Amino acid sequence: MTTERWWVRLAARWLARVDGVSGMVRLAMLGMTGLSTATITLRQYGHGEYAWPLIGATLGGTLVFTYFYTEGGVWNQMSRDRQDLSSNFANPSMRMNNELLARAVLAAQEKRELTEAERAAIKAELDDAFEEYRDGIELDDDV
Asked: C-alpha distances in angstroms, 127 versus 20, 65, 116, 140?
């Protein structure tokens, strides 16, 4: 049940926002760790004068990456690919459901019990489809 308390709704909304960008936050933290390590290494080896140009180049690269990631369509394509990959019907429970549904539909259309040959034909057809889509769909075919 949805809560009635305003502060719980506010906290949940902010937690959902943070969760939505958590991958990018982790990437940013990893980038900052790498940048910190690189600047310390430069200083240790006597090339500290390159630290600020490295930081500037990293910030510029981050802005370019962010622009192309969002405006270039990478974000949207990634979302579509995730949706396509997550809708694979060929898992075991769906395999059983598909056979049960096919048998029920055919029996209802014929208004009688199915013969063993009809059951075997349904099973063979679904086995072929299951093998074809077992590993998901090929996303590169449309490109």
From this structure: 38, 44, 16, 24
